[in-house]
Amino acid sequence: MPAKKARRILLKISGESLLGKRSYGIDPAQAKEIAKQIKALADRGLQVAIVVGAGNIFRGISVAAKGMDRATADYMGMLATIMNALALQDAIESLGQSVRVCSAISMPEIAEPYLRRRAIRHLEKGRVVIVSAGTGNPYFTTDTAAALRALELNCDVLLKGTKVEGVYDKDPEKFPKAKLYRSISCTEALNKNLRVMDATALSLCRESKLQIIVFNMFKAGNILKAATGGKVGTIVKN
To answer: What CA–CA distance (Å, rounded) separates 86 from 177?
Structure first.
C-alpha cells in the first residue's frame, strides 16, 4: 500500500491520548511514551507533521451544546490544542529530536505562526512539526484540520491514532462482536456513517485521493507500523 513508500506523514492524535491514567489534563509520562514513537519515525528518516486534539482539556462542541456560543467554545478548544502541542513538544525535545509548534492563531511568544512554506521547510530539515489551533476557524474539528494540513503539506498518508484497532461497523466498546474493516473506501465510510473522521475531513481526503490509516496507537510500535506499511488498523482509501 502507499504507506510503504511514505516520505512525509501527518499523524492525528486525540487529546485523550495524553491523559494516561488521569481523568483530565496531561500525563507527562504518557506524553513521553508517544514522543518515543514519534522519534522512532524521525529516526527512520520520515518527515512527521502532527495535529493533536483537545478532548483531554476542553470539548468545544460539548460545551456549546450546553448553551455556550459555539464560536467561543471552539476558540477555547483551539487554545487547548496549543497547550497539548507544547506538552508534546517538550516531551519530544527531551529525547533530542528537533521540533516546532506552529499555530493557526497568532501567539508569537510561544509558537510560530502556521505558514505552509515554513512548515514544509522545517519538515525538509528533519524537524517534527506540530500544527496547533485547528484551522484557526470555529466550526471545524481537528479531524478537518488534520486533513487540510496533510494536503497543504503534501503528505503521503494521514495516520489517525485511536484507542481501538481500526474502523468497525459499530462501536466495539459497546458491541464486542463488531466487525473490523481492514479496508474501506471513503465513500462507504461516509454512507455508513462510520465516524472514521468527520464528514468534512473524509470528503477532503476523498476528493484529493489522500489515504487514511486508522489504528490503535496505544499498542507499542503501532505508529511506526502504520507509517511504514505494516499490517495494522484499517486503510481508508479512494
So the answer is: 39
Q: Cα–Cα distances in Å, from 74 out to 37, 77, 81, 215?
A: 29, 5, 11, 26
Whether the predicted model's global pTM rises above the 0.90 cut: yes
Please, what sign has the CA dihedral across residues 45, 26, 225, 10? negative
**What pLDDT shows up at residue 6?**
87
Burial degree of 24 (CB within 10 A; 0-12, 13-18, 19+): exposed
Closest CA to 1 of 166, 211, 161: 211
Q: Distance between CA 172 and CA 188 in Å, rounded?
A: 18
What's the whole-number mean pLDDT along residues 146-150?
98
Q: In terms of residue numbers, what domain contains 221? A: 2-237
Residue 74 has pLDDT above 90, yes or no: yes
Q: Which of 15, 8, 152 is nearest to 82 (CA)?
A: 15
> Does the pLDDT at position 62 exceed 80?
no
Alpha-carbon distances, residue 75 vs 39, 54, 121, 133, 136 (angstroms)? 30, 11, 28, 8, 8
What CATH number does residue 232 fall under?
Answer: 3.40.1160.10
CA distances from 90 to 34, 50, 225 (A): 12, 14, 24
Report the alpha-carbon distance of residue 52 to residue 132 in Å, rounded. 7
d(C-alpha 145, C-alpha 205), whole Å: 12
| Position 205 pLDDT exceeds 60 | yes
Question: How many domains, the chain?
Answer: 1
